[in-house]
Amino acid sequence: MWEVILNAIAWLNEFWTTHQKDILMTTLSGIGIATIGVIFSIIVWLFKRWRKKRQLERDKKFSQPKLPFQLVKPNGDVYSLLYPPESDYKNPVLADRNIPYQRRIHEKNTTQELSDLLFEHRWVLIMGRTGIGKTREAAEVAQKLNNEGWTVLKLKLGEWLDRPNNEQLQAIGTDRKLLFLLDDLHQFMRRSENIEKHPQGKDNLALPINIPLQERLLDTLKAYENDVADPQEIRVLAITRNEKEGYYSGQDSPWDKLQWDKYQKLWDKFYVYKMPDPENGAVVELFKNIIPETNIKKETDYIDLAVSNDGTFRNVVENLVTLDNGNLALNKQNFKETLQGTWDKRYKKAIEGDNLAEFIYDGIDLLQQCNVPLNELLVKETALLMVRGNWLQRLWYGFRVQKSLNCLIEIERILNPRDGQIEERGNRVDITDYWYKLEKLILRLFKSDSQLMTDALTNFSLYLYQKNRYKHSLKCYQQLVTVVKEDADILFNLATTYAYLERYDEAILSYDKALEFKPDYDAAWYNRGIALKNLGRLDEAILSYDKALEFKPDDDAAWYNRGIALKNLGRLDEAILSYDKAIEIKPDDDAAWYNRGIALKNLGRLDEAILSYDKALEFKPDDDAAWYNRGIALKNLGRLDEAILSYDKALEFKPDDDAAWYNRGIALKNLGRLDEAILSYDKAIEIKPDYDAAWYNRGNALDDLGRLDEAILSYDKALEFKPDYDAAWYNRGNALDDLGRLDEAILSYDKAIEIKPDKYEAIFNKALCYAELKDVETFDKLFATLPQDYRDNLLNNPDFQTFIDNLHGNNNSD
Fold first, then answer.
1. Same domain, yes or no, for 93 and 178?
2. CA 337, CA 586: separation in Å to the nearest integer?
3. What's the helix, strand, coil split of the chain in %, to 5?
4. Per-position DSSP letters for 308-338, written without gaps between them
5. What per-residue confidence (pLDDT) applies to 679?
6. Which of 421, 445, 469 is the last residue of a domain?
7. What is the pLDDT of residue 668?
8. Same domain, residue pair 627 and 679
9. Out of 196-200, 282-286, 776-780, least confident range
10. Does residue 749 contact residue 763 with C-beta atoms inside 8 Å?
11. Which of 82-96, 376-390, 413-427 has the highest average model confidence (pLDDT)?
């Protein structure tokens, strides 16, 4: 568009220069003004037309259902999904998609073998080291099936994977045969490397985002199987590397990223096909087919190169690209035997020839670590972000960076980095030094070209979220939704970010907005329920969980949290039924078993509660809370020895659990093991010095042992932390009474009575103190204040009646 405007201005300038005199005369007559006005109007009209066209393209893009897959309908071009365009290569003959296919093993058709396995097992995982042609074999199979009427769906890197909604299914066409193509599967797992479920993950507002891709992939593919009339018309072909070492120290290897042992449910679905290395004959055939189509001069036998080659097709192709770009001959001296170390050498060569190349590599490294997809504009601007030097140097680099980038795109295909191309150059860029600058850059570019930068901002927003930079993530999502207004996934992520910042009302509004566009979004209903629960709106939370379960009946987390809400509302029987559903779906859900036990205990169904705690401990033997509450239930059943053993297990896993030490002391005291009880109370107090109940019960145990002075000191500590502890004042009075310190005992009873005026035992014991002091009148007055039934019970006791008679008799005799 700007080219049209500039051409118009150039024409006006030339016209003016050539016809100045005529124009002047015409202008004086008024005609020239009209002419210029018409030309200006044409320019304005062209500009408005261009803007309208661009807006329509943008609206069309954002109105389409967003799919996490690139789609090729039957009889399409599958290779376009897997390989960069030919324009990325200096010589199109050497473009990956144009390299002639070679049978890797003589008289063995790997493509047919994979096709047969795919129809037999439906889910096939091709595994092998980098560079041996795994992707090419998968492309051959996928193209073959595509030509036979199968729709191919390739998973996009960095997309949020979830169960499909109706619009997405319609866009794909549920009546079609679907082949899911998962290339470089280990790369997709990298986003989940450090994102695991929190120990209390079921109560985690961002649980769906934090579910690792291994779990989401399985759920999504199962959903497609369930939504297609015949699951036999679903196929999954995945490709991954299996090296056990990363590129540099501390990096997870491709094998580590898969987490094979942890996600058995996913990997058990696949038939694993270990791709064999190509034979030397296949490498020779590759040379024979390619070299004649290039300007490369052959100076050695192909078999000699094949023998020295590292056994990969990739090494051969990269060598030929280098030779062709450099006009070099094919001989042993020029042919690199392996890619190992090659990328580092090529990087050093690039920066020796152009100092800006270093910043371009650094920029791409930064973007890759943030899972941001590469485009030319973003790489250029990020490279400038990495430039060091004064403002004059930075200005000069700004003029040169495009030329440097063009060179790297042509020679190194830098916008489509190969395995190791960025990593092997050495230490990676420290993200912490640049993420904030990168955030400002991406936001600026998004404002100027939202269509180009939508994917970049989407991925970067999620990166910030995963790194717990919620305020910055929120800022990015807020900007994103100004353009992408109807994307349920982005609205969901915005809502969840609000929730992490404890802005629950705003989170609920965003979940509601997401649900407008995707009413069956079970994760949004679920997290909406969590936000409502955190606001204390439990009845609404339960309704939200119910909607989540309507669309995903096997969501154990929704059943579990529904149970929590019901329990908090006191609807314990319903809560237990909800926990039962969670356990039915996930039998090893220790948290559900544990909370089920709590509900049963609160209903007084102690034996059942203990069985539920036992199941929780079967799956999580180190659950100190389950051991502790199991001990409480056993204590309430009078099974004190078993209760103590349960407390001991709780303390094994949580030695600083003051409540466990305290209740252990109670059980020991009730068994008469007073010295052990005191030691247990001492541990509770050591952990929690202001534990008034522990000080009080310690005093009782000391009193029972006759250690009255120590008992009084213990009661005093209890009263230091709880001055209105009537029982402590009362028992302190008893100890003082037993020591004969009657005046002090009376003061202690007075405090108990002041706090609890109907504490009749304190009034009675105070009266007895006055009796011991021979103050019969005060005794009688105090005794008269006791309720009639209380006095009658005492007087019905022969021993007490004798005491009364003697007391008054002695008084009369005096």
1. yes
2. 52
3. 70, 5, 30
4. HS-S-HHHHHHHHHHHHHTT--BSTTTS-S-
5. 96
6. 445
7. 96
8. yes
9. 196-200
10. yes
11. 376-390
Contacts of 13 (CB under 8 A, 6+ apart): none
Task: Give the number of domains in the chain.
Answer: 6
Residues 348 and 226 in one domain: no
Angle, vertex CA 386, rays to CA 385 and CA 387, nearest 5:
95
Which CATH number do you get for residue 221? 3.40.50
Mean pLDDT of the chain: 84
Query: Does any domain span residue 258?
Result: yes
**Is residue 809 one of the residues assigned to a domain?**
yes
What pLDDT, in 10s, does the model give residues 385-430? 888 767 777 777 778 888 888 888 877 788 888 777 887 777 788 8
28 has a pLDDT exceeding 50: no
pLDDT at 52: 61
Handedness of CA 169, 173, 177, 180 (dihedral sign): negative
412 lies in a domain? yes
Domain that holds residue 288: 281-340
Nearest to 97 by CA among 126, 140, 132, 58: 140
- 719 and 796 together in one domain: yes
Phi and psi torsions of 782, nearest 5° = -65, -40
Q: Does 254 lie in the same domain as 178?
A: yes
Name the domain boundary from 445, 460, 492. Answer: 445
Rounded CA separation 586/562 (Å)? 15
What CATH number does residue 756 fall under? 1.25.40.10
Of the two residues 459 and 68, the one the predictor is more confident about is: 459
Q: Measuring CA to CA, which residue among 353, 281, 278, 291 is closest to residue 323?
A: 291
Do residue 133 and residue 247 come from a single domain? Answer: yes
Structure confidence at residue 646 (pLDDT): 96
Digit-coded pLDDT (tens) for 105-118: 887 888 899 989 99
Say what the pLDDT of residue 228 is: 63
Q: Encode 714-734: b = buried (16+ Cβ within 10 Å), e = exposed.
A: bbebbbebbeebbbbbbbbbb
Could you give the CA distance from residue 417 to residue 339 in angstroms, rounded to a whole number? 14
Report if residue 104 sits inside a domain.
yes
Both 400 and 307 in one domain: the answer is no
Closest CA to 192 of 210, 165, 177, 169: 210
Which is more confidently placed, 4 or 605? Answer: 605
Instruction: State the pairing for strand pair 177-182/69-72.
Output: unpaired
Q: How confident is the model at residue 232 (pLDDT cuts 50, 70, 90)?
A: confident
Q: In what order do the strands lie in the sheet with 234-241?
A: 69-72, 150-155, 177-182, 234-241, 123-128, 271-274
Share of the chain above pLDDT 90, in %: 43
Closest CA to 628 of 583, 684, 673: 684
Check whether residue 95 and residue 231 sit in a common domain.
yes
- Count Cα neighbours of 384 within 13 Å in the Cβ-side half-sphere: 20
